[in-house]
Predict the structure.
Amino acid sequence: MAWLVTGGAGYIGAHVVRAFQAEGIDVVVIDDLSSGHTGFVPDGVPFVQGSILDKDLLVRTFAEHPITGVVHVAGFKYAGVSVQRPLHTYEQNVTGMVLLLEAMQESGVENIVFSSSAAVYGTPDTDLVTEATPKNPQSPYGESKLIGEWLLRDQEVAAGLHHTSLRYFNVVGSGSRDLRDTSPHNLFPLVFDALIAGKTPRIYGDDYDTPDGTCVRDYIHVADLALSHVAAARRLEAGEPIEPVYNLGSGDGVSVRQIMDTVARVTGIDFDPEIAPRRPGDPARIVASGELAGRDLEWKMRHSLDDMVQSAWESRQAASA
């Protein structure tokens, strides 16, 4: 039996694929390559190039492979851009989920692990986010992820779907030198690209109510994240009790200044970040508890901030070699 990884040629999806392989579990990848890379798919892994908006393709994929469950990573993931492209965001993330669930139901596939997002919380008024923290998404992206969770809940009632959703904040690092974050919007690629171009990275605001004045966020290593996707899939397949949602959080977080200092130390490129004005809506601190996922999904922070930066930098350098 195999698991289908949607978006399996992307940064997070490719790490999920490798984690399944390391556990001896067969995988199939579907990806439209809008942000993924064929080179991220390992040799020997069946690769279907196409969109989850193509329901006929999904049904054929289920018919042609012995798929027992889905890890749904595919989607439009840029919160800021989603404000300018709401219809595109909903089509990719909501319509895509509907078509995927329809294809699963028609094909008799009952297990799904959903790559959700901490964007469902918006800007919470608490120092430590738990699964019970009120949901208040503040972008079409966050709204689309919350709707995805609702669809899973409703399909459980209607058709007996077995599911869980994993919410997380900032995914960084690399589990392999040939896999890297190529997003034009994420902090690590932006900082590395600036340094390589001889430019100075920016910090947006250094007067927040935090220990060093810069925003504190959850940063988690992509390889740790991938392992919990496998643990969730195993739990679903075994019919073991599972929560509908889990936060994959660090419990303490790191500041943007700490990241900049670590990048300078790890890369050997000495720089003093430029301080720019605050960005509207940026909260001082957002950190999530991973206690529930630690109980059920083997979740823990196996990598330090140095590990995260070092692995990400090595994969960035390997891409330029």
Observations:
- Residues 86-107 form the longest helix (22 residues).
- The chain has a mean pLDDT of 96.
